[in-house]
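To: structure desk
From: M.T.
Subject: fold request, one chain
Message: Could you run this one when you get a chance? Sequence is below, nothing fancy, just the single chain.
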Amino acid sequence: MKNMIEAKPNDDILFGIKKKSVNPYRVFSENEFMDKLEISRMHAKQGYYRDAEAVIEKMRNRYRF
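Reply: Done. Structure tokens follow.
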């Protein structure tokens, strides 16, 4: 889910900014899915993850009224 900003010449302004967005709900091809899975596995080996229960507890404490 990456957003790109593209600058295009416009008559009214020097540059108009148009934001391109990628549909996060699009269907991945098998190769795209396998690439993302490999990246996830690599991150897990490097320790780039958090326990879901810890994240939930932190959110509950932060947004408790």
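Reply (cont.): The longest strand covers residues 3-9. Let me know if you need anything else for the meeting.
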